[in-house]
Amino acid sequence: MDVLQLDVSGRPQAWISAREAAVLYASDGVAWTLGEACQVLRGGIQRTTGRQSRIAVHPIVAVRGAIPSRAWRQVPALSNPKLFARDRLVCAYCGGRFHFDELTREHIVPTSRGGDDSWMNCITACRACNGRKGNRLPEEARMTLMYLPYVPSLHEDMILRGRRILADQMDFLLASVPRSSRLHG
Ligand SMILES: [Zn+2]
User: Which of 8, 61, 88, 176 has its CA 20 to 30 A from that of 104?
Assistant: First the structure.
């Protein structure tokens, strides 16, 4: 399982392994936790007691320390897996749902014509639609977007990046995702 790491104010920071979380517990780096403990890791033998230490890891841990001020303003990095997840594996032009390998990152305004490689100018398209649109604007190609691009919030970004998200973690993250997000659909 992966543990959702927050800063002390509750902003998501990263997915970490249970073992990385255990290191935070052991070094007194955890400020607070959410959810029921979901994994118990065994540590070393304590010399004084002769007993093996045990660390119960929670699904969500907030770490002590200062909050990096730039973290909140940062736009999540764009990647194909996250783009396709944002768009729920649906081609924006034909509306078909495809396997990951059959999808492409489509620039609404082509990069050769000044379009940038950003969340707002990128959309998920199947190979056929991407090829058909080519180096044109959607209106030039007479192709209509079936849904619109948007920039994911930090909470949404964590969902897009997560591999196996536990119910406690999903509840926490979704509570801060705007209702307009496709992740609620
Ligand atoms: Zn398509």
Answer: 176
